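FAQ: What does a ligand-bound record look like?

Like this one, built around zinc ion:
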Amino acid sequence: MSSNPLCSPLATASPAEREAQQLARLRPMMAQLLQSNPFYQAKLAEAGIASLEGLTSLASLCELPFTTKEEIVADQMGHPPFGSNLTFPLEQYSKVHQTSGTMGLPLRWLDTADSWAWWGECWKQVFRAAGIGAGDRIFFAFSFGPFIGFWSGWEGAEQVGALAISGGSYASLQRLHLLLELQATVLVGTPSYLLHLAEMARREGLDLRQGHLRALVVAGEPGGSIPNTRAQLESVWGAKVYDHAGSTEVGAFAFSCEFQQLHLNEAEFIAEVLLSDGDEPAEQGELVLTNLGRVGSPLLRYRTGDLVHLVRATCRCGCAYARLAGGILGRADDMIIVRGINVFPSAIENIVREHTGLGEFLIEVSRRDEIDTLRLLLEMDEDSSARLAFDISRTIGAQLMLNVSVIPVTPGSLPRWETKARRVRDLRE
Ligand SMILES: [Zn+2]
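The answer part, i.e. the structure of the complex:
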């Protein structure tokens, strides 16, 4: 690949230059919102902000109020079906998508032609950083329904000049045959779904390591940055994993470089990190994002619910954008508290994926006699189950200080997820 893997000159600019550029994008967007976006007009008025006067540096961003998912949900319920976070008249919007709805009612999101092209630009950065471009054949293991999922990746594939192949409504086995027959070089999907596909290929006797596939671009779950899940994906597919992070609400905000570090795309987003229960800036905490290229349906200081550890030091790849060390560490709403200990499903996933040949898993929390109990239902073959269950339970005890019963279940019996996996069942309420 001859093209520069870092799409914007800001990736190697000094912090001062980058911040100046971010501010130069933020100010006209804010001016537009104050003029014609009912949601932000009301919100900013409530915060006493009527002009751009106070917005003279990025440091003054903290004068602006946060935006929360709850506010957006309430706004869409109050102004169905699209809410009032719209800067332009409805006829200027050309795409509508929604969230996966795994956490309740789906949120709807409209894009203009410009903001959709911006989504594609962000994905272009994801693909370029992974060395993907003209000559590549990108297979999307995704059903292309109303959930935004990889629709924007599809747009990005076109922008980098690759051949895009839709797995569309195909069943998993058909997808496997299609991606092998068409000699896909890149596979896009969620980590758990790609593991599921590989498991199916093994059962069907299909050889995945034919030499065509060289990159897996994964998103939707932390798996791409969980060391053991990543190693397992790379081993079964014979291809390198590039993690990516994004969401329906804010856009495609992070990409992986050749060193598999997850970078925030600071050409298009302003990032802050907050302690989970307060307003203080921190290195580790909740990621707060402002997107700069989605003026028609923007978010200012949006509390993403993603927990991250932000590192500000130039990466070996030459990129000076902040890195999310260890990827998305978890979601605030995924975290479970068991007997006072904070548990992230991703930590358990890392232990489970130390072992090969295991299928899906499900974490079940219940309360008996006022005591929380944790069960880990884990798909495994019967002949190895007693020993493995014991080993995994012991490792979780040692590494996470948790007492957990590992219950072997029949392979294929737990739910499969093509979009974000939901692996916690809390029975305590
Ligand atoms: Zn890097």
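Follow-up question: can I read anything off the structure? Yes, for example: The chain has two domains: 1-331, 336-426.
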